[in-house]
Amino acid sequence: MSSTASAKNGTWRNWGGNVASRPAREVAPASVEEVSAAVRRAAEDGLTVKAVGSGHSFTSIAATDGVLIRPQLLTGIRKIDRDAMTVTVEAGTPLKRLNMALAREGLSLTNMGDIMEQTVSGATSTGTHGTGRESASIAAQIKGLELVTGDGSVLTCSEKENPEVFAAARIGLGALGIVTAITFAVEPIFLLSAREEPMPLDRVLADFDELWAENEHFEFYWFPHTTNTNTKRNNRSAGPEKPVSPVAGWIEDEFLSNGVFQVAQWVGRAAPATVPAIARISSTALSARSYTDIPYKVFTSPRRVHFVEMEYAVPREALTETLREIRTMVDRSGLRISFPVEVRTAPADDITLSTASGRDSAYIAVHMFRGTPYQAYFTAAERIFTAHGGRPHWGKVHTRDADYFSRVYPRFGEFTALRDRLDPDRRFQNDYLRRVLGS
Question: Which CB contacts under 8 angstroms, 24+ apart, belong to 325-328?
């Protein structure tokens, strides 16, 4: 199976393999006009419509038994505006292709997540993010959107045009319409110096505020059942470029991070008692390294080991307390956790349903190898996250509903009112949206 979602015998499956649906029909429109026509035809047939990206969400946010819109023909750059420093791309463009095309033009996004298989609209609609002291999620870099709404009409929105739609639709969950094009702010390409090094968990937690303040991009991975973390700091650099050598890159990124790690996951799944020992070995496998390269080569890394993930944003000041509680829970639970816990940050933004909306945030992500029972671990972790007012990533496993979201998002009512206006017939409804937004 490729890195994207698959369809066999009319069944659509996501990348994590934990969601499947059988759409009544699939369409692959090549233009905004064809998207509008597909929405109008669905309405005539009384069917709902969902656009799907690369299936990298672990929730059923894109699942539908109605019309499934596939994005592979809605790709490519429409326009680069060097005066405004923006790029407008078709919604189905994979981040990987956008990053490479921008680099050829001497341009880059300011910040990005660590996976680049997703489409631009899938990544932004679910609030995908990297880590950053001042620079926020991919959606926070959006300057304009083109959106097909419930009656098939096309809305363009920005801070000046339809600003109330713009405030919400940058992370629209697929609930407000189908995004057909996105305009991103870009900047001249720059170099990042990356420093990766192991550090004891207690030291990371004790010095977290300093590590956060001293670095433009700081993140770390903690290996449960150990006291070890791997830390990553990315900061802008005047150069020179010092990329990872192909051999070292293959050993670290492919052999250790994907190949050996995959084997370790298989062993852990077959014999859970071996997990703590494997975790100790995994947590010391990657040695310290430094390198300098263009942004997408530093921010992103291949993820070939398939997993299922839950991630919550908590207020940044609650991070160390939350993580200590997760560690205590794992130690006392008898659970065997073979995947590291990932910690990143984002500054507050002004997007209605962004996980960082109105508050400086820290993200804690828990993962389990695909095919391993994850419910007990995720349920225990979710109890801790929600006690701190956590907001789950829209594309990752969680059990929250509209009642919970109305309490943790001050502007939740603003979003649902806009949805009533743009999609009164619930053309874009599915079970997931019914749960998280109410009917």
Answer: 325/384, 326/364, 326/366, 326/381, 326/384, 327/201, 327/222, 327/224
Q: Supply angle C-alpha 315, 321, 323, rounded to 5.
A: 90
Secondary structure E strands in 279-418: 289-293, 307-315, 341-346, 361-369, 391-392
Model confidence pTM above 0.90 = yes
> Which residues, 6 or more positions from 433, have their beta carbon under 8 angstroms from its beta carbon?
61, 173, 174, 175
Return the structure tokens found at 97: 């292709």
- Whether residue 217 contacts residue 110, with contact meaning beta carbons closer than 8 Å, is answered with no
Taking alpha carbons only, the member of 132, 141, 134 closest to residue 89 is 141
- Written as one string, the DSSP assignment of 422-435 is H-TT-TT--HHHHH
Residue 77 identity: I
Residue 306 pLDDT grade (very low, low, confident, very high; cuts 50, 70, 90): confident
Q: What are the CA-CA distances from residue 255 to residues 16, 224, 259, 287 (Å)?
A: 21, 22, 4, 14
| Residue 325: Cβ within 10 Å count | 18
The neighbour count for residue 272, using CB atoms within 10 Å, is 16
Contact in structure between 181 and 171 (CB atoms under 8 Å): no
Structure tokens at 246: 């192909």
Closest listed residue to residue 312, CA positions, set 227, 418, 239, 383: 383
Write the Ramachandran bin of 318: left for phi over 0, alpha for psi from -120 to 50, otherwise beta: alpha
Percent of the chain with pLDDT over 90: 76
d(C-alpha 273, C-alpha 296), whole Å: 38
Distance, CA of 181 to CA of 54 (rounded, Å)? 16
Closest among 237, 217, 220, 229 to 131, alpha carbons compared: 217
**DSSP result, 71-127:** -TTS-SEEEEETTTTEEEEETT-BHHHHHHHHHHTTEE-S---S---SBHHHHHHTT
pLDDT in tens, 116-172: 889 999 999 999 999 999 999 999 999 999 999 999 999 999 999 999 999 999 999
In terms of phi and psi (left: phi > 0; alpha: psi -120 to 50; beta: otherwise), the region of 188 is beta
